[in-house]
Amino acid sequence: MLFKGKALAPVTMGVIIGNRDFFPDKLVSEARADILELLEKLHIHPFILDDQETKLGGVETFQEATKCAELFKKHRDDIMGVLVVLPNFGDERGVAETLKLANLNVPVLVQGYPDDLGKLDVARRRDAWCGKISVCNNLYQFGIPYTITTDHVVHPSAPKFTEDLQQFTAVCRIVKGLRNARIGAIGARPGGFNTVRYSEKLLQRSGISVTTIDLSEILGRTEKLDAEASEVKARLEKIHAYAAVGKTPQHALHQIAKMDVVLNQFMEENVLDATAIQCWTSVQENYGCNVCTSMSMMSENMMPSACEVDVTGTLTMYAMQLASGSPSALVDWNNNYADDPEKCVLFHCGNWAKSFLPDIEISTAPILGTTVGEENTYGALSGRTPASPLTYGRISTDDPQGKIKAYIGEGHLTDDELNTFGNRAVSKIPDLQGLMQYICKNGFEHHVVMNASHTADILQEALGNYMGWDVYRHG
Q1: Cα(341)–Cα(301) distance, rounded to whole angstroms?
Q2: Cβ distance 416 to 426 under 8 Å?
Q3: Which candidate, 418, 422, 308, places its Cα nearest to that of 374?
Q4: Which residue range or ranges hold the L-fucose isomerase C-terminal domain (predicted)?
Q5: Is 339 exposed, middle or buried (0-12, 13-18, 19+ CB in 10 A)?
Q6: Rounded to whole angstroms, how far apart are CA atoms 256 and 381?
Q7: In the chain, what percentage of residues exceed pLDDT 90?
Q8: Contact residues for 280 (Cβ-Cβ < 8 A; gap 6+)
Q9: Which of 390, 378, 358, 164 is nearest to 284 (CA)?
Q10: What DSSP line would sit under 103-148, residue for residue?
Q11: What is the maximum span of the chain, computed from C-alpha positions, in angstroms?
């Protein structure tokens, strides 16, 4: 279900082992061994007190909290999240004070050990069930957001906790990624697309920076490139390796390759994570091809790219990519599927990542071609997305209310018959009609993002609990 795509960046995590002195010492030592073994298995690098720095490496007193906070502060640039482990009741103040003093502003997962029904005597009981409530109460009082496990108490060796921890690491990736995201807005928003307007200022408040450039600068640099230049030839080879070229003429492939060189240079120069590009209709009219192939290649290589300068669309692609470890695609909520109320057609003309298009081929954009000439639209991709899990959603800036909002949900892509062109898929979504009513009543865009995963829980936790955005979870 998760992490089926590209290699994900390694996760580093701070670990707090809560303790109360009158519980058996061995519970703390055992918990330390349990957690370190699991983190090693999951390739998570821990920052944890040495068992000689405090009693057994646990945190109870303010002095111990100070030591743990100092350790975390030394590694604040590396720590993506904090795991709180409660082998016994723990000291809720010690946990909260550590996080307050460290001031990391990262996601926090609170775990508590289960008691053994046959070991509730004074020498062996844990009381972590009760202690976890106290820790969460104190974090709430301190204004520190936190995540809780599926089961109130769970042993680190349980499969449920492994799944919880893996989902939490994805939450950490999303939060770290979004709070430092850099998006390139290439060109002006097309005049006919008021729907993709957004607020740079609201995004900046959440740590998301937008770097703009006029499309003429990109086209100007592209026109200066010689088709025989080594970097253009190298890109041309990558394009041939990426997709079947179909009937695309050589001169169009050279145009696509030159544009690809310049776009990648712009991303490298500005250290960008994602792009949103003015493709409708200036590129076709002023340069003579579509930029879809380059956008698809970038998205496939985990640098999401959205058309029509849809900045919050590509931001959504980036968030879903961080959640699943696989590419995302920007699509239109485009057509009903016959009279089935829970199915609809997803479409674009198109620039979806290769992961969605096993039959990928470079082609033209027939709809756009009716106004700019189909011969000027080579570079659009054709392909049908097969059945798969589906997470869909959209991040949007709501300027009148001064907030960032989102909706997310899950469904499936199907293999139902679909005879049309472009990038296309059929989706099946429970209560689709209710979702469409919500989208229309709340002013969301016609663009939505899809990802071949079921990761809505992760996105809801990251965007709502930690980014502080208004999130509607459908279904």
Answers
A1: 35
A2: yes
A3: 422
A4: 346-472
A5: exposed
A6: 12
A7: 93
A8: 190, 192, 193, 307, 308, 368
A9: 378
A10: -----EEEEEPPPPTT--STTT---HHHHHHHHHHHHHHHT---EE
A11: 82
- Is the per-residue pLDDT at 224 higher than 50? yes
pLDDT at 305 over 80: yes
- C-alpha to C-alpha distance for 455 and 5, rounded to whole angstroms: 13
**Residue 306, CA atoms < 13 Å, CB-side half-sphere:** 29
State whether residue 462 is helix, strand or coil.
Answer: helix
Closest-CA residue to 212 (of 264, 277, 265): 277
- Amino acid identity, position 26: K
pLDDT digits (tens, 9 = 90+) for 183-210: 999 999 998 899 999 999 999 999 999 9
How distant, in Å, are the alpha carbons of 35, 171, 340, 404, 453 from that of 416?
Answer: 46, 33, 12, 35, 19
| CA end-to-end span of the chain | 19
Alpha-carbon distance values, 53 to 57, 62, 64 (Å) = 6, 14, 8
Q: Spell out the domains of the chain, with CATH numbers in brackets.
A: 11-178 (3.40.50.10940), 180-473 (3.40.275.10)
In terms of Cα–Cα distance, which of 112, 88, 94 is closest to 26?
88
H/E run at residue 64: helix 62-74
- Bridge partners for 307 per DSSP: 277
In this prediction the pTM is 0.96
Q: How far is Cα 179 from Cα 165, in angstroms, rounded to an integer?
A: 21
How far is the C-alpha of 340 from the C-alpha of 254, rounded, in Å?
44
Measured at the alpha carbon of residue 60, what is the angle toward residues 54 and 65, in degrees to the nearest 5? 70
Q: pLDDT digits over 98-132, tens only?
A: 999 999 999 999 999 999 998 888 778 899 999 99
Name the band, by pLDDT with cuts 50, 70 and 90, for residue 10. Answer: confident
Between CA 122 and CA 107 the distance in angstroms is 34
Token digits of residue 446 = 């016609």
Per the CB < 8 A criterion, the answer to whether 266 and 213 are in contact is yes
Is the CA virtual torsion 266, 270, 271, 273 positive or negative? negative
Report the alpha-carbon distance of residue 244 to residue 337 in Å, rounded.
Answer: 29
Q: How far apart are CA 32 and CA 269, in angstroms?
A: 44
Sign (positive/negative) of CA torsion 160, 164, 167, 173?
negative
Amino acid making up residue 474: H
Pairing of strands 340-348, 447-451: unpaired
